[in-house]
Amino acid sequence: RKKIAVMTSGGDSQGMAAVIRAVVRTGINMNCDVFCVQQGYNGLIEGGEYIRKTEWADVRGYLPRGGTPIRTARCKAFYERPGRLTAAKNMVINGIDAIIICGGDGSLTGADRFRAEWPSLLEELVSKGELTAQQIVPHKHLNIVGLVGSIDNDLSGTDATIGCYSALDRISTVISWVQDTADSHSRAFVIEVMGRHCGWLALMAGVASGADFIFIPEQPREDNWKEEMCSIVKKHRDEGKHQTIVVMAEGAQDRYGKKITTDMVKDLLSDPHGLDLDTRVTIVGHPQRGGKPVAHDRMLATLQGVEAVHAVLEATPETETCFIAINENKIVRKPLMAAVQATKEVAEVIKAQDFEKAVKLRDTEFAD
Ligand code: F6P
């Protein structure tokens, strides 16, 4: 019987619980034993109670749940080889040689590194007498499949990450509440949403809410951004609009890479010598990552979780590490490291102010 581990890692996102349910139940259906690893890589390192065989009924009710019931963590120890060595030992002890991991690009990169090092980790464990040569025979290859769980929708090569539509729903709801009170008081609101390196949430929330102005890291503002924003807001007010909404990704910046803060925008909108608007700041914060997943994320998590188990069972030692993407409404397998690489390159070219290249890279199709 194949033994598969499933875990969530990095920042949580809505739909992670649905991923666990889909992997556990598909695995059981396909005659595998499925183990849930608690607290991401921490659990692999801790071993024991942290690696639990999970049954069909254990994941009942997971489909609509927010957060990740098997918990998550950003694990520093796994960045170091001794941490990965202990993790490898715990996996062999439990007879596991496949991991389905749901997380962001950092967590998925860690998984690929683990896979690349796997043979040398096992050799070291044998040479130190922590495992016997016989114990490692059935575990020569580690098989990793990634699922992208992140509210930011920030991985190249997939149209949507698990959680991004739920976060967008939370933000759009908050903005609509803010709009009610803004309209009553004829106020302006500067609303900050998550997205350190990726402006998808801010851009889509702005579009979905009819925002007056949007700041995203991918489109750093030119020197004249203050005049531009004020003239647009003034035009909307002159047309009879009673409320003003400016949406900012937390990574908003100017063309020199300097952060544009919510207070800078607030001061500008409320300047008595300028627009003189009664202005407030709302930082949406972590409610964006909480609450029940919307139907899209439940569906995505389920279909991708099923596909991940199939990918594990069909993998050969030669198979490149893949992640499960959605492209033009199709669930597909894609090479993991090409996507991580493209995502990193986007961040680098944005830093280097080459925005045309960034847009091209985001749209790049890499071979399956
Ligand atoms: O999940 C990614 C993200 O939402 C980023 O947009 C944000 O900067 C970060 O998480 C904050 O997460 P934490 O508070 O867990 O460090």
Automatic annotation (TrEMBL):
ATP binds at G11, R74, C75, G104, D105, G106, S107. It is found in: Cytoplasm. Substrate binds at S150, I151, D152, R187, M194, G195, R196, E250, R280, H286, P287, Q288, R289. Residues 3-312 form the Phosphofructokinase domain. Residues 1-368 are annotated as: N-terminal catalytic PFK domain 1. Mg(2+) binds at D105. The active site is at D152 (proton acceptor). Catalyzes the phosphorylation of D-fructose 6-phosphate to fructose 1,6-bisphosphate by ATP, the first committing step of glycolysis. Homotetramer. Belongs to the phosphofructokinase type A (PFKA) family. ATP-dependent PFK group I subfamily. Eukaryotic two domain clade 'E' sub-subfamily. This is ATP-dependent 6-phosphofructokinase. It comes from Pseudomassariella vexata. The chain holds residues 4 to 371 of 786 of the full protein.
